[in-house]
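Page 42, continued from yesterday. The earlier attempt failed because a stray header line got pasted into the input along with the sequence. Redoing it now with the clean sequence only.
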Amino acid sequence: MDIGIGIDPTLGLTTDEELEVSKNAAKLNYKSIWTPEGTGYDSFQTCLMRWQASKEIIDGGIYTGIAVFPVMWRSPVALSMSGGTVSHLSNGKFIMGIGAGSIYRSEVRKKMNLPNLSMLSLMKDYIIIMRGLLAGDRVTYKSKTSSLEGIKLGITPPPKTPIFLGALGPKMLSLAGELADGVALNWCTPEQIQWSREKINEGADISNRNPSDITVSQYIRVCIDKDEEKARIKLAKATMHYALGPDIPNSSQRKYGYRAHFERMGFSEELLKLDKMRKNNASNDEIAKAFPEKILKSVGYYGNSIGAAKEISKLSKGLDNLIVRIVSSQPGDIDSALEVIKACAPNKIEEHINA
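This time it went through. Structure tokens are written below.
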């Protein structure tokens, strides 16, 4: 299993501090550095800067990747151009993760002036188009969501770039197995990782692919602090927006996105109790304080540095690529971030995996 590190804007670090974290990750033999994509700083440029920082430590640098880029922000051609450029400049040390994001929500589609789309069809179109472009093909493609006529990237040689698909539900996981180079999971218990692999394998069978050729990757959040309660609250705040959703969902909305994902893992009752608190206007702090330890310990780690590597080794069972996603107990403090990457250094996790 490869082990990478995940850095995101919630850490509150300056650009120079992020690059310092990247150098330290390379020194500790992490194999990759990952970032999510939002509406902030451009993730492609961020990846390139982190790769350049790691190259000061390791000859050729280490891999960087995006997990994941919500496709509503760019067309498949624009994504291929940006991803292909980073791959070209980094000599192939770049992995591009794409996902549907939150466009299953009508209010999000309205903001982006998007029609009501099939998420499955949209992601299938993106993968097919992008794989063709990144392989150097001239792509002609027509569907309900995309239409291209003889488009080819002007990058030589072709910037062959692995495409990971962000997937949670059975159909999207199957699509990843059918077409993608890898799968970007998120917030999965070890049991859910195994279930996800089964769905991925079903997709691989459709296209006669070897399931072992499909990389299964996942962020696992880690918050370290001597004050365990402080770490717990920070991890709860990082978790609850995903698990609960931005608004109190109705029965139909609970069938989609991360809410459906957490309920598939057996946490329906716990989340409904928190929904009742939200209906009674509980604050985010109150929700975080009440957030079940059962959920937090099933998908992440909080506490002191000593127990981190052992617990992460258990949570990562079944993965090909573990990404230790830093949750800072003290945003803006680089030492808080560095403590996580030291506590979860690959040699420490591997020691427990091989025990």
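Notes: The two ends are 15 Å apart (CA to CA).
Reminder to self: strip header lines before submitting.
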